[in-house]
Each structure stands twice: as C-alpha cells, then as structure tokens.
Amino acid sequence: MMKLRQALVLLTATCMLAFVLPACKKNKKDATPTEKPGQIKGMGDQAGTPEGTPFELPANISLAGKIRGSQCDTVYERGSGAYVDVCIALFNSGGTDITLVIPAGLVILADEEEYQHGMVVQETRILLKAGQITRCTLGAYCINASKSSSSSSTTYAIGPITGSVLIRELLDLLKNKKINVEDYPADDEAYSEAVGTVQSAVWGITDFDGLQYFKEEILKLPNK
Questions:
Q1: pLDDT tens across 70-98, in order?
Q2: Are 104 and 175 in contact (CB under 8 A)?
Q3: Measured between alpha carbons, how far is 73 from 210 in angstroms, rounded to an integer?
Q4: Which of 4-18, 45-59, 188-202 has the lowest mean pLDDT?
Q5: CA distance 94 to 89
Q6: Which candidate among 71, 84, 115, 199 keeps its CA 20 to 30 Å from the CA of 181?
C-alpha cells in the first residue's frame, strides 16, 4: 500500500512541478527578505539540521524503542504524507488515556545523511491508552527532494517545530484542509491526490522557488 501511495503521489507532484517550474524561472519573488525558498537550513540540499522550537513529550509519555522508517504492523495510522512514513511506539505510563497532539511543523529527523527528513504539516492526534505501548504509523512530508524516502533500515528522531516563516505560511493554509489519512477512511485515491498537492507545495519551498505557484491548488483542497 505504501508503494502504491508513493507512486500516485509522485505522479501528482511531478505533473504539478512540471507545470509550474517554467513559470518559476520567469518570476522569482521572495516571500520574506530574510529567508529564501530552497535555501532553508537542513531542507532541500542545504546542509545542517532544520531549526525551530524544541518539542518535548508530555509527562508519562515516552518513546518505546527507535522510530523506524516504515509502516507499523498495526492498522493505527495518523498524519499525512507518503515519502516519510515512520513507525513510532509510545508508552503511556500514566493511569489515564492521553491524546498526544503532534503539532504542525514538527520535523522528523533521519539519522542517516542520505535519507529525507520529514515534516508533519497539520496538527495530528494519537490516542495513547493508559499503561500500554501504542504503535502508530505517522505520515510526514519529505523536505529533501533529492534524498531517499524512508526505509525500514533507517531510524529517525523527533526534531524541532520548524521556525521557517515560509513553511509556517503553508501550514496556515493547510490548517483546516482535509489532508490527513484519517480524513479519507475509504478513499485512498483522493487521499493520494491531496498528498501529491501538498508535497508539491512543500518542495516548492524547500527545494525550488517558493509557494506562490501552488497556493491555488492548496486552496482547492476540501475543507474539514
């Protein structure tokens, strides 16, 4: 299923990029004078680690093992994306169930240089049962187009909540859009099309010339 989704997303993203990239060359405009598309630390082909606000798990919640670059062996799936699917296991040591809120903009850092970092682009909730380990496949968007997609042989770490002004503009546009896998329980094709649209916009910021060429398609995505 993950390979099929990746193929559908790649088709959608490639078509969109092929259409807008010629226009990008004719009209480059920076959304802010202090940050430029394709030149954000740790994103695209830029060196370093993405910067932002540290994210800490709440009290009584901890990782139960390494975060792996693959889908879990459970049906519990949250988030959105196709290239950086990770399996995350979380232990709730408390006496009550907790809903963990993954904030929009959270970066999932690949431990190996040749693999893509991922980013959660919309607030995502994971229910953690009291006294149990919950294994969940968390979808995230690639922020390094030229690198390899997630692999079961790769481990990841929880990174910061991005401070990129350009990325935050996209996150605001996506805030109330239907893009998470839980929004499409019975329509995998529509979900893949939505993911393709969002991935193109993310790459527009991280690897190419900006978001402006993708705003119209983002606004067309269905509202929640």
A1: 999 999 999 999 899 999 999 999 999 99
A2: yes
A3: 37
A4: 4-18
A5: 16
A6: 115
Most distant CA pair in the chain, distance: 59
- Select from 206, 162, 198, 213 the least CA-distant residue to 37: 206
For 102-140, give the DSSP string: EPTTEEEEESSTTB--EE--S-EEEEE-TT-EEEEEEEE
Give the other-Cβ count within 10 Å of 146's Cβ.
Answer: 10
Yes or no: say if 214 and 204 are a contact pair by the CB < 8 Å rule.
yes
Distance CA 128, CA 114 (A): 32
pTM: 0.86
Q: Is the C-alpha dihedral spanning 218, 31, 143, 45 positive or negative?
A: positive
- The token pair at 215 is 């705003």
